Amino acid sequence: GTERPTIGEGVEVVVVSNRQPYRHSWGDNGIEVDRPTGGLTAGLDTVVRRIEGSWIAWGDGDADAEAVDEHDRVSVPPDAEDGYPLRRVWLTEDQVDGYYYGFSNRVLWPICHGALTRVHSESEYWEAYEAVNERFADAVGERVGRGDVVWLQDYHFGLLPQMLRSRVPEDVLVTHFWHIPWPGWDTFRACPHGSEVLRGLLGNDLFVVHTERYRQNFLDCVEAAIPDAVVDRAAGRVFHEDGVTTVEAYPLGVDTERILELATDGDADERWRRIRSRYGIGEGVRVGVGVDRLDYTKGIPQRIDAVERLLERHPECRGTFTLVQIGSESRSRIPAYRELQTAVVEGVNRVNARFRTDDWRPIVYTTDRLSDRELYTLYRNADVGVVSPIRDGMNLVAQEYVAAQADGNGVLVLSRQAGAHDLIGEDAVSITPQDTDEFAGALHAALTMPEERRRERMGALVETCRSFDTEVWIEDVLGSVARLREEGHGG
Ligand code: GDG
C-alpha cells in the first residue's frame, strides 16, 4: 500500500542505527554517495523518507568528516525532494575498536547467538560502549523536541534508551528494535555487564524483537536479573522504577513486491544466462544458492560439508548440481571472522578438488557483491535456497528467496535455528545444520521433490512471507507507538 503511517501531526521520528543509510565521500566529481549492504538500512530508508523523519548513525567510511558533514541533508539523487537530515556521529579509532569490534561484536553478538565460547571481554570494550552510547544520546538529545519518537536499532545501543531519559522531554516516546536473537536466561547470565544492558533497555517505552520466543526469553532475563522489576506476562509489560516497558514481537519481513519486480523485469532471462556463464554453470546443472555475511553464526562450513556428503551419497548429483555461495566480508578485524573466511575457502577448495570435472564444479564461491537485481534473479532461478544458520535472529535471505520465486517451483532448505523458521518453517525442508546426514538428505529431497509438491509448498511460503512484508512490520511497530502515545506513555 501507499498509505502513509501516521503517528501524529508535527511528530518527527528519529531513527538511530550503527550503520548509516548512505556513505558520502570526496570523489573526482565532488561528493559521491554509496549505500552499504544490508536489508535493514534499505528498508528503513524508504520509511524515513515517507514519514519525513531523520536519521542518526555512525559516520563510518573514509569520508573527509568535516567537509562531508556540511552536507547534512541526504539527497539521492542530490536534489531529490524527499531527502532527510542524516546526522553522523564521528568516532575515534579506539572508540570503534571498543564499541563496535569489542563489546557489540565480541560480547553481545556471541552471547545473543548462544556462542559462549566466542565471547571475549575487555574492560576497554565496555568503557567504549558506554562512551559511544553517551555520544549518541547527546546527538539524539540535540535533535528531538517535545512529543517526538526515537526509533533505535539493534544491539549497539543497549544503554542508550536509559541515557535518553535525562536528555529528552518527558513525552518523547523511545522504541527499540532488536535484530538478533534474545537468548534464554541461562545463556544471557554469561553476559558481562548483562544487567546494566537490561536496565538500559528498560529505558524504552516499547522494546520489539522478531519472535515470541525472544520476547519470552527477554522477559525471563528481566525477571531473573532485575529484582525491582515486575513482569506482567499476559500484557507483555515490565513495570520498573523509571516507568513501563512494553515488549512486543513483530517479525521483520522483506519488500516482497520490489523483490519480485527486480527478479523479473527487463531482460531477466538474459541476466540469468549471464550469471550462469560468469559462474561456469553448464546447461542442465541445477543450482542451489546461499547468501551470507561471512559470519560464524551462518553455518557456511556446515553447508559445504553437506554438499560434500550429498555428492558422496548420491553420485548422480555429481555434474548435475552446483551450490552458488555468495559471501560478503564482515567484521574482519575480529580473529574469529578471519578464521572463518579461511575455513570457507579451504572447505570449498577441498570439495571442489575432490569432485570437480573439466566442465563442472560442486561449489562456486565468490565474495563479490551482487546488485539487488542480479541477486534476486539468482534467487528466482535457483532450484534450492539453502539457509543454514547455527542461530539467526530472523534471516532475510530465506524470505528474499521466497519473494523472488516468480515461477513458484523452488524449494527452501531452512535451519530450525533461524528466527525465520518460527514463521515459515512448516513449508520449508527443515534441517539442523550440524547434522550433516540430515542436511545432505534435505538437499537430496529438495532436488528430487515432484513439481506439484514444490509448487504447493512454495505457494504457501509466498503467502506467508507476504503476510509479514516490511510494510506490515512498519505498520505494526508504528501502530504500537501510536497506541502507546494515546495511552499517555512516553517519558
Ligand atoms: C541481522 C540479523 C536479521 C548479502 N550479500 C549481498 C546482499 N546481501 C543482503 C541480503 C540480506 C542481507 O544482506 C543479510 O540479511 P540477513 O537477515 O540474512 O542477516 P544479517 O546481516 O546477519 O542481519 C538477522 C537481520 O539483521 C534483519 O533484522 O534477519 O538475523 O543477524 O538482505 O540480501 N545484497 C546484495 N548483494 C550481495 O552480494 N544486493
TrEMBL record:
The keyword 4Fe-4S does not apply. Keywords: Transferase. Pfam families: Glyco_transf_20 (PF00982). GO terms for biological process: trehalose biosynthetic process. InterPro entries: Glyco_trans_20. The keyword Cell division does not apply. GO terms for molecular function: alpha,alpha-trehalose-phosphate synthase (UDP-forming) activity. It comes from the Archaea. Gene3D superfamilies: Glycogen Phosphorylase B. This is Glycosyltransferase.
